[in-house]
């Protein structure tokens, strides 16, 4: 039996940056959603110069789901997410859904989220992201978990957030210091954890994605691993989490630096696994560099169109 109310309202927030083709694919998928909820769409273009997303939304006119398209000149993933939250709070929507511009949802995406949020009473839910690679070990695997409560979430690309959650937070909701390096989502989740908010996963609320050609190579995977390690450590240091957490991270770094090179040699003949130790090595290096104040600016580069 459906647990959510047909009067539930959801505003779908989309950050975009120089990807008009992907934005069109996403908006087409949103237009095809099958839901009885009251759904609206908000697009924030983070490209102050080219404005491809803004121009695309304006060209769609009043019939477009993206007629509420907004434009903010401040560059950075944290800034564009903050712009979306700011405008979303001006609406009466009870829930805020966030989906990245390089993804597209299944037709029952919103209904699955609403069903699970009312069943679990969670404050923030994450849906699964399917890249068509299953449990691939090369860094391009699907991001999935069983439906139900979880301790933390993995990213802001496929979320449903109760409006009350961000209303209770002080702005900026996503820390601008992570605007180009990334990690703004993990910082957001840590703040919510400390505020006692509840998380859940909804495997049925699925979004699909693909891997741009510029990411389909070992070099990008290693840079990505370095970036994740760098941002994860910066979040850890920002919140000054317990000393034992720092000690554990240092032991992980040391273990990766010592063991990963040997594992890389052993797995060199395994196409599906040989990148894993190198990724662990780069992630450890990213964490170590963060401890010395270095920042890796992953979102300074655009992938896809």
Describe what this molecule looks like in 3D.
The protein has 305 residues and is an alpha/beta fold. The chain is built from 9 helices and 9 strands. It is globular, with a radius of gyration of 19 Å. Strands 1, 2, 3, 4, 5, 6, 7, 8 and 9 form a 9-stranded mixed sheet that branches. α6 (184-194) runs parallel beside α7 (218-238) and α8 (243-266) packs antiparallel against α9 (275-291). It has 2 domains: 9-211, Alpha-Beta Complex (Spore Coat Polysaccharide Biosynthesis Protein SpsA, Chain A); 215-300.
Number of helices: 9
Mean pLDDT equals 78
Radius of gyration: 19 Å
- Elements, N to C (H/E): EHEHEHEEHEEEHHEHHH
Per DSSP E runs of 2 or more residues, the count of β-strands stands at: 9
CATH C-level name of the largest domain: Alpha Beta
Helix-strand category? alpha/beta
Helix and strand topology:
Elements lengths: L8 E8 L3 H12 L6 E8 L6 H9 L9 E2 L5 H12 L6 E5 L3 E3 L3 H12 L3 E7 L17 E3 L7 E5 H5 L16 H11 L4 E11 L8 H21 L4 H24 L8 H17 L14
Helix pairs in contact: 6-7, 7-9, 8-9
Labels describing this entry:
about 300 residues; alpha/beta; Spore Coat Polysaccharide Biosynthesis Protein SpsA, Chain A; nine-stranded mixed sheet; 9 helices
In short:
It contains nine helices and nine strands. It is α/β, with parallel strands linked by helices and 305 residues long.
């Amino acid at each position: 039996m459906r647990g959510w109310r047909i009067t539930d309202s959801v505003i779908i927030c989309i950050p975009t940056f120089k990807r008009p083709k992907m934005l069109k694919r996403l908006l087409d998928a949103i237009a095809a959603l099958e839901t009885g909820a009251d759904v609206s769409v908000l697009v924030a273009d983070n490209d102050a110069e080219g404005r491809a997303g803004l121009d695309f939304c304006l060209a769609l006119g009043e019939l477009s789901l993206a007629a509420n398209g907004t434009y903010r000149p401040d560059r950075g993933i944290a800034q564009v997410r903050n712009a979306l939250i700011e405008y979303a709070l001006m609406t009466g929507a009870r829930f805020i859904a966030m989906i990245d511009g390089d993804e597209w949802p299944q037709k029952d995406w919103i209904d699955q989220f609403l069903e699970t949020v009312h069943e679990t009473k969670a404050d923030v839910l994450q849906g699964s992201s399917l890249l068509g690679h299953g449990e691939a070990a090369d860094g391009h695997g699907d991001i999935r978990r069983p439906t139900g409560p979880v301790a933390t979430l993995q990213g802001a690309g496929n979320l449903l957030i109760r409006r009350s959650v961000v209303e209770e937070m002080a702005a900026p909701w996503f820390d601008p210091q992570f605007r180009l390096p990334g990690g703004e989502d993990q910082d957001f989740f840590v703040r919510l954890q400390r505020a006692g908010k509840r998380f859940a996963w909804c495997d049925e609320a699925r979004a699909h994605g693909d891997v741009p050609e510029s990411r389909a190579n070992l070099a990008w995977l290693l840079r990505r691993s370095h970036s994740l390690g760098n941002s994860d450590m910066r979040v850890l240091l920002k919140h000054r989490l317990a000393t034992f957490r720092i000690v554990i991270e240092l032991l992980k770094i040391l273990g990766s630096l010592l063991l990963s090179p040997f594992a890389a040699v052993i797995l060199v003949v395994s196409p599906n696994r040989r990148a894993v130790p190198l990724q662990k090595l780069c992630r450890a290096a990213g964490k170590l560099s963060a401890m010395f104040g270095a920042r890796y600016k992953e979102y300074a580069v655009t992938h896809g169109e």
